[in-house]
Amino acid sequence: MPWISYNPKKFILHQKGVPQGAPFFYFTTCYLPFSTCCAMFQRSNTHPFLIAGPCSAETEEQVLQIAHQLAPQGIDLFRAGIWKPRTRPGAFEGIGSKALPWLRRVKEETGLKTTIEVANAHQVYEALKHGVDVLWIGARSTVNPFSVQEIADALQGVDVPVLIKNPVNPDLELWVGAIERIQKAGVQRIGAIHRGFSAYAKSKFRNAPYWEIAVELRRRMPELPIICDNSHICGNREDLLEIAQQALDLNYDGLMTETHTDPDNAWSDARQQITPFVYGEMIQRLIVRRETTDDRSFLENLENVRHKIDEVDLELLNLLARRMRMAEEIGRFKSSNNIAVLQTNRWNEILEKAFVQGRERGLSEGFIEKFLSAVHQESIAKQTHVLHAASQARNNATMDRA
């Protein structure tokens, strides 16, 4: 096994067969697929991967007290915020490196592995020097490729597990890009944390879940473990169980939840933290569902229903293709009469009618709006193409006559 010696400017990896002065790429050019490198974050059939601990490490006593109360709950990682990126200056920004020895005591006294957020190379070095087991990259860092690359460069040659939170804004490519940067640094054990996204619209959540983004990440990287940070999605205690259960129902691998012995007086994010006792009750109430089963009757019935869904989906595609042909026809009418593509009154009329018809059929307004908005955008694109082609043809004809 390689061992790491700390140097303030870089880490040096000593391994049999690797020259002492070899550059990092000498032994970090092989990136293992997620299927072979992420088992540590994956859930079992009966137990999700559990991360819990305080939003912020406030005092040594507080950290140790929470850890000792969480240890019997069967958690896999103890989390604590050491450096806290805050929106505005003047807020509590974490104890800093002073708290790292506290986490070492957590490991010594409880046996729990530890994890903290890092946002730059110096924090990576400090965390590894003090034996932190897992690092995570926060949402405010994931949104900035320069920050992620700095962290990735600091991790060259050091195979410490890394969890990557989604960026603050709902941008899947930034999330994927951050994962790829860390993977290309040679890190083999990688997982993703879904903590929700900032949204302008009012919501009961602190950060809108936008589950579809995490689902798409799972589609693109099916072996990548995904953990739900239900604390940051909710921003309150009341909805933690609901969001945790929804994540497990979507086959997430684990949960990250903030806990505190005195949540109301926590130095940061007080509203979304719960006591270790309440946390234990929440975990006991969760239902962990299997991804599949060997029951032949169930599988046959499921396959029959899926076949019917495939047939309906094909009908939908045929109807959508027919609708787009009609949109092109409307585009030609508008072009010949010099009419603008966007007709706002008509669009509002379509939506209002669809909301009523959708409710009668058990469809939510949110779904109707998303679906018809996508159809409307494609229709606009078709009509715009028709008008552009007609304009180009007229311009060409004018030039020929000239």
Overview of the molecule:
With 402 residues, the protein is α/β, with parallel strands linked by helices. The protein folds into 2 domains: 261 residues, TIM Barrel (Alpha-Beta Barrel), CATH 3.20.20; 106 residues, Chorismate mutase (Chorismate Mutase Domain, subunit A, Up-down Bundle). It contains 14 helices and 10 strands. It has an 8-stranded parallel beta barrel with strand order 3-4-5-6-7-8-9-10, surrounded by 4 helices. It starts with a strand and ends with a helix. The N terminus is likely disordered.
Short description:
The chain has 402 residues and is of the alpha/beta class. The protein has helices at 34-37, 60-70, 100-110, 121-129, 139-142, 145-154, 172-184, 211-220, 230-234, 240-249, 276-285, 296-336, 344-360, 365-401; strands at 3-5, 12-14, 49-53, 77-79, 113-117, 134-137, 162-165, 190-194, 226-229, 254-258. The protein has two domains: 25-285, TIM Barrel (Alpha-Beta Barrel); 296-401, Chorismate Mutase Domain, subunit A (Up-down Bundle).
List the helices and strands and how they pair.
Layout: E1 3-5, E2 12-14, H1 34-37, E3 49-53, H2 60-70, E4 77-79, H3 100-110, E5 113-117, H4 121-129, E6 134-137, H5 139-142, H6 145-154, E7 162-165, H7 172-184, E8 190-194, H8 211-220, E9 226-229, H9 230-234, H10 240-249, E10 254-258, H11 276-285, H12 296-336, H13 344-360, H14 365-401
Parallel strand pairs: 3-4, 3-10, 4-5, 5-6, 6-7, 7-8, 8-9, 9-10
Antiparallel strand pairs: 1-2
Keywords:
10 strands, two-stranded antiparallel ribbon, 48% helix, alpha/beta, Chorismate Mutase Domain, subunit A, TIM Barrel, 402 residues, 8-stranded parallel beta barrel, 14 helices, disordered N terminus, single chain
